[in-house]
Amino acid sequence: MRPHALNPASDRRVLAWGEDGALQRAEFWRRVNGLAAAVARHPARRWALVCEDSGWFAAGFFALGCNGRTIVLPPAPQAGSLEAAGAEVDAVLTDRPGQFSGLEVLPATAFSADVSAAERLPDDALRVEFYTSGSTGKPKCVPKAYAQLRLEVEALEREWGTELGDAVVVGTVPHYHLYGLLFRILWPILSGRAFMTGICLQPVVLRAAAARGRSIIVSSPAFLSRISDYAALPPAEQVAAVFSSGAPLPDAAAEKLAKDWGRAAIEVYGSTETGGIAWRAWSGAAERSWWRPIQGVATELRESEAGPMLWVRSGCTWQGEWMATGDLAWDRDDGRFALRGRGDDVVKFEDKRVSLGEMRARLLLHEWVQDARLVLLPGRRSLIGAVVVLNPAGRTALEGSSRRAVRDALRAWLRAGYEALLIPRKWRFVDAFPGNEMGKVELARLQALFGPPT
User: Fold this and answer.
1) SS3 readout for the chain
2) N or C: which end of the chain has fewer CB within 10 A?
3) pTM value?
């Protein structure tokens, strides 16, 4: 990748900023080469990489990659997450060696600094294993080749590199998922930008971290939708871009960011399996539904039992082959597409097929509903359950009457389009959906709101 043009005031010698100040590029690559020498002396082939600090994580990633070792990224940076995910490893490279027992451990700081500062990049065949819960909550191993990661970074740079310039990457998301690894670590390192090694968990911390100059905020719907005071964020003119991924950003949050803060979030749609597929940014309610494919990503609709399903192909899909996303969609002549629910949202209930995604869309049109999820509840007799987040008008109605009255009003709203036997039998009203740290709503957590199967 050709590094982007940096302005004269920038310092390309700085690779990252942390609690101890600047991490110079020469120092970083000495870390990599020193760790690589230590890894080369170790017989382990499969390594868990568990580092809280993103600078040490990045050094460990390249050190393992240069030696052709398989890199296993557990779903959380704790020792127990390896066992919970069922990941098999021979050793662990970590900046917290005291937390691991019963495994071979290589401390990230245990290396000789008397080595070359030459840059060493992994071979394209390097295997990186991600563990993702998807919508079910059950960990699943998704292997990726370094070539796929490198090609995705190149696609991101083609799409946004020019407008980002030399801004510093600041993150509110962890680096051990694909989104965080790409946007917070690999993209800045391979394109010549600096990044912050710590994670920002509050808007005021984000503002302080971005005080050095222009910043790129890598965030999530869970973080962005919780912001109530936009004055706590960095000034919009100081932000080159704000990215959001992992789940859809609520419409209200997307509009408020664009109008009240002055910087629309760039939402990136994709998955660990497919890589980034498309993006959108708030430009008005009329265009909200439409996603634009990222440069180099091909999309097409193929008929399935549930309806037209979106398939994608790019350098990020396995061996560049077509891959089903599992999402139903519409498309239009300009190449953009709109999502209309998961293919597996179409369920058979009482000998009839019903799309829970379409029923959700109908429910979202009610004047009291901010968001909703519909789930099939297992048991001796399957039922459809509805989990609803009410808007202010809905909460007022709830406080002024009863849960039963609000439930009956929503059931009556759905009855205009569905047979009575298909209307959700069980309802839960919540302030927010139970989601993971990225804001992804997991099926198992929704079902748990209704208690054990009966």
Assistant:
1) CCCCCCCCCCCCCEEEEECCEEEEHHHHHHHHHHHHHHHHCCCCCEEEEECCCHHHHHHHHHHHHHCCCEEEECCCCCHHHHHHHCCCCCEEEECCHHHCCCCEEEECCCCCCCCCCCCCCCCCCCEEEEEECCCCCCCEEEEEEHHHHHHHHHHHHHHHHHHHCCCEEEECCCCCCHHHHHHHHHHHHHHCCCEEEEECCCHHHHHHHHHHCCEEEEECHHHHCCCCCHHHCCCHHHEEEEEEECCCCCHHHHHHHHHHHCCCCEEEEEECCCEEEEEECCCCHHHCCEEEECCCCEEEEEEECCEEEEEEECCCCHHHCCEEEEEEEEECCCCCEEEEEEHHHEEEECCEEEEHHHHHHHHHCCCCEEEEEEEEECCCCCEEEEEEEECHHHHHHHHHCCHHHHHHHHHHHHHCCCCHHHCCCEEEECCCCCECCCCCECHHHHHHCCCCCC
2) C
3) 0.80
